[in-house]
Design a protein that fits this description.
Death Domain, Fas; 0% strand; 49% helix; mainly alpha
C-alpha cells in the first residue's frame, strides 16, 4: 500500500540532521550510512535514509516500525505530529507496509525501489 509522498517528505524534513541516528534505528548498515553521508546532498540525506529503509529488503517497513525508530531516537515530536496523520492513500492498519511512491519530480522526492 503506497503512502503519500507528502507524508514521507514531512517526516524526512523534520528528521533533518538526526538522519544518521534514524538510519541506525531503522537497521540500515554502516555502509548505507556512509554512502548517504558521503554522496547525498546534505539537504536530502534524511529523504535518502527513509528511501533506503523502504527499499531495504529484509527489514520490516511498516508504520509501526517507523514510529518505533523515531521514538528510539527521541523524536516523539515527529511521532506526535506526523505519525497520527492518515499515512496511506487508502485505509489500512498500522502494520501495513510503507512503500515509496515512484516520482520524477525532484531529487528530494522519494524514488521507487526499482
Amino acid at each position: 500500500m503506497p503512502v503519500s509522498e507528502m507524508w514521507l517528505t514531512d517526516i524526512a524534513d523534520r528528521v533533518g540532521d538526526d538522519w544518521p541516528r534514524l538510519a541506525t534505528a531503522l537497521g540500515l548498515t554502516e555502509a548505507d550510512v556512509a554512502h548517504i553521508g558521503g554522496t547525498i546532498d546534505s539537504r536530502t540525506q534524511a529523504h535518502a535514509t527513509i528511501n533506503s529503509w523502504l527499499c531495504g529488503g529484509d527489514r520490516p517497513t511498516t508504520h509501526d516500525e517507523l514510529q518505533r525508530a523515531l521514538r528510539l531516537i527521541g523524536r516523539d515530536d515527529i511521532v506526535a505530529h506526523c505519525m497520527q496523520m492518515p499515512f496511506a492513500t487508502d485505509a489500512g492498519t498500522d502494520n501495513a507496509p510503507v512503500r515509496p511512491i515512484p516520482s520524477t519530480t525532484s531529487r528530494t522526492s522519494f524514488d521507487s525501489c526499482t
